[in-house]
Design goal:
Shape: elongated
CATH class of the largest domain: Alpha Beta
Order of helices and strands: HEHHHHHEHEEEHEHEEEH
CATH topology of the largest domain: Rossmann fold
Distance between the termini: 16 Å
CATH superfamily of the largest domain: TPP-binding domain
Number of helices: 10
Low-confidence stretches: none
Number of domains: 2
Radius of gyration: 18 Å
CATH architecture of the largest domain: 3-Layer(aba) Sandwich
Strand order of the largest sheet: 3-2-1-7-8-9
Mean pLDDT: 93
Largest sheet: 6 strands, parallel
Length: about 240
């Protein structure tokens, strides 16, 4: 019944924009950062994933992120990612805004993807603003503990938003624009606890949620489905066929 309701909402409320969080990627074998058994339960993020830590000890930050990048590059898009790409191709989804850094939406075939927390596809130089592709960064890491900018030779920063950094302005502006111009924001796999991205559904006229467990905005959603992303979105594609 919940999937039928969700399908009816998406048919009636166009355009629809999707906001995704870690819950859609856990089904690809990627551990959640913030769950009770997540990465931050074992590692202090301010020691390995903050801008202060990067400036203090970039080699330690890269030891952490090299393992993360290797894991994320090995992961494959799951049924949830593929379903969203199909819904976009059929005209039911205008864009995907994601908190995830794993690039799985793009690899699944989604065309309009806004990555508000950055991604693993590149690293950036904070001095000259050069962007180095992940393949070249990983090649450097085979030879040295931290990659260097090929132009100014400063240490490159992982292309993800570290703790203590502002979110990329262009990506956030685009995400807000998409939410405000939508008729429905569909939240998938996010507990909506990390701001300012958690506030994006509130920019839309209405929003619905698909997530395992409660979220911070359940009471304000017009529909809340407590279920996995892959099974729900696959069923949604079938319902909209």
């Amino acid at each position: 019944m919940a999937v039928a309701e969700l399908a009816a909402l998406i048919r009636e409320r166009q355009p629809c924009v999707v906001l995704t969080g870690a819950g859609i990627s856990t089904e690809s074998g990627i551990p959640d950062f913030r769950s009770a058994t997540g990465i931050w339960a074992e590692v202090d993020p301010f020691e390995v994933a903050s801008i202060q830590a990067f400036r203090r000890d970039p080699e330690r930050v890269w030891r952490f992120y090299r393992q993360r990048i290797d894991l994320l590059r090995q992961a494959e898009p799951n049924a949830g990612h593929l379903a969203l790409a199909e819904l976009e191709a059929r005209g039911f989804v205008r864009a995907v805004v994601t908190q995830n850094i794993d690039t799985l939406h793009s690899r699944a075939g989604s065309k309009e993807v806004v990555e508000v927390h950055g991604s693993i596809r590149s690293a950036q130089c904070l001095e000259c603003l050069w962007s180095e592709p992940a393949e070249k960064v990983l090649a450097q890491l085979e030879e040295r503990p931290a990659p260097l900018c090929p132009h100014c030779h400063a240490v490159l920063k992982p292309g993800v938003v570290l703790f203590g950094e502002l979110l990329p302005a262009a990506a956030m502006e685009r995400a807000v624009e998409l939410a405000r111009s939508s008729a429905l924001v569909l939240v998938v796999g996010s507990s909506l606890e990390v701001w300012p991205v958690a506030g994006l559904p509130l920019e839309a006229p209405a929003f619905a949620i698909v997530n395992r467990g409660p979220t911070a905005l359940d009471e304000q959603a017009i529909l809340s489905v407590d279920a996995g992303a892959g099974e729900t979105l696959s069923a949604l594609v079938a319902a909209l066929s």
